[in-house]
Fold:
Amino acid sequence: MQTTTSPPALGAPAFTERRYVLTLIFVTSLFMLWGVGVTMGDILNKHFQEVLHVSKADSALVQFSIFGAYFIMGLPAGWFMKRFGYQKGVLLGLGLYALGAFLMVPAANALSFGYLRIALFVLACGLATLEAVAHPFLDGLGDPDSSDRRINFAHAINGIGAVSGPLIGGYFVLRGTHAAGDLTSVKVLYSAIGAVVGSIGLAFFFVKVPPLNAEHTPGTAVSETDEAPTDLGADKSLFQHKHFVWACVAQFFNTAAQGGTWAFFINYGTEYFGLSNDKAAYFFSLSLVGMMVGRFLGTYLMQFIAPNRLLAAVAVANIGMCLIVAQHWGVVSFVALILLNFFFSIMFPTIYSLGLKDLGRHKQLASSFIVMGVVGAALFPRLMGLVADRSVAQAYYLPIICYIVVFLFAAKLYKVEKKPQAYSPT
Structure:
C-alpha cells in the first residue's frame, strides 16, 4: 500500500506556544529557587566545619542530607504528580521547601548537626519534588523537538539562583568571624528563605495552568491508538528503554562530580589560593556565573549542534580541568576549578532531556527515576572528603571517573532504540 508522509518542517521548532508562555515563565522561575537551595548547602558545609567543629569528611554529610532526599523523594513525587497533576506537585514541593527552611531555626537553636541535617533533608524533599515535576512539565510545554532548548534555558535560569546562593550565603553566613556555636546568621537567613518560598507557593496556587496534550497530562488515560507518534515503545516497560536506563546512570555520576566539586570549592580557595571564607564564596559564585553563561550558550548552540555532541565535548573538557586542578598550580589550577562549572553547565539538563526522549506514557515516572540519580551527589562528597582530609587538590582526581561515564553516554549510550519496521511484501 502506498503511503504519504508530511514534508519535514523547515527550521528549528518553536520554543513554545503562546498559550503556555505564562506557565513557562512560572515553572522556569522554580529552577531559580532550587538553585539557591542547593548551593546554599555548600556554604553551610564550610560554616559547620568552623562553628560546629566537624571534619571535612563529616561536613560532607550536609550534601548527603540534601541529595539523599532526591533519592528518597523521587518516586513519591512522581506518584503524587501522576495522581494529582503538575500544579499540585509544585505546591507540594514549595510547601516542603518552606517547611524545611523554617525547621532550620529550632535546629540551629539546639546547636545540633543532626537536627540541622534533618531540616535540610525536609527542605531538599521539596527541591526534589519541584525537580521531578518541572522537567516533564517543561517537556510538555511545546514541540517535543524543542524540549532540549526549553530545559537548558530553564537550567540557565537555575544558574541565576545557583549564583545567588553563594553570594547570599557568603554575605550573611561566612562574612566576618563567628564564635563556636554561633548560628544566628543561619536562623535569620533561612527564616527569610521560608517566607519567600511560602509566598511564591501562595501565588502559584492562583495561576491557571492551561491543559496539556494527552502525552504529558498526568492522570489522562491514553489508548495505544491515541499515543503520540514519538512513543516508539508503547508496548515496552520503562526499563526496557535502554537510553533511559543509561541516562539514570549518567545522571548519578554527573551529579556525583558536581556535588564533590562544589562541596570543597571553598576549602580549595582558602588552602591553596589564600582566600578568606567569604572571598572564596564569592569566587564560587563567579564560577556559577560561568555555569549560567554556559547554559545560555548551550541553549543557543543546540540549534546547530546535536545535544549529545555538545555533552561529549564538555565531558572531555572537564576531564582536562580536573587534571589541572589536582596539580594545585596556583592561579592556573584555580581558574581550572572555576571553569569546571562552565563546562559542567549543560550536563544535567541535557542528560535529563536525552533520557526522556520517546518515552510517551512513561515520561512522568521516568522523570522521577532520573531525579533519583541525583543521589550521586549525596554519596560522592563523602568519598572526596576522605581524600580531602589529606589533600583537597588530589580529591579532584576522583570526578574524572564520573566524566568518563558521562562521555560514554553522550557518545553512544544515549541512542533511542527504534521500533522495528513491520515487513510488508511488495
Notes: The chain has 16 helices and no strands. The radius of gyration is 22 Å. Residues 1-10, 216-234, 421-426 have pLDDT under 50 and may be disordered. Residues 21-51 form the longest helix (31 residues).
